[in-house]
Amino acid sequence: MTRGKALSTIRFELDPAEAADFVDQLKPALQAIAEQKGYVAGYIGQAIDQPGLLNLVLEFDEIGSYRRAISASPVKYAAHPLLLRALDEPSAFEVLHVNAEGEASDYPSLLG
pTM for the whole thing? Predict the structure, then answer.
């Protein structure tokens, strides 16, 4: 069975005046995550219509890589204090379909 890719989308709701400073704080955390095995890409975004709403999106080659990366000591040190400010909602997702660079791929759910 093909292992599923993993996405994590972590949202933060801040005072808009804090957003730029918080993005600067997220950058080293994203760098620590990016150094982990299985990391594919990461993005820090800001809602266009609600500037205090930020999003940290992470892509990993498989679910196990995501879990190991989030548990790694450098990530705990750099990211976990910031993650305490994340909205309390599900943040880890298995990828079921990708359409990129002109190609589409399906991935079976590993949830059963």
Answer: 0.90
